[in-house]
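Annex B. Sample input.
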Amino acid sequence: MKVQNITKKGEKMKKYSFVFWCGYVSNEDGKPSIQHVTEKDISEDNGFFDEDIKEIKDLSVGQKHDIHGVLESMSVYRYN
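Annex B, continued. Sample output.
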């Protein structure tokens, strides 16, 4: 999947790369998976807590944020 590269200063990133490893509820193959999502997918309706949403949307390129839920853990990396 091609990810849009944002270069203008002050613009919010449009897509994020989620690399997550599920602790208690694992993927079928037991391996981490990568999901490409849009900014609108990062919401409380999709299971994100408000403080995690703010942290994710403020990430700089190369930074990551760890999310620890009841049934899974996830690392969110900004790569563009």
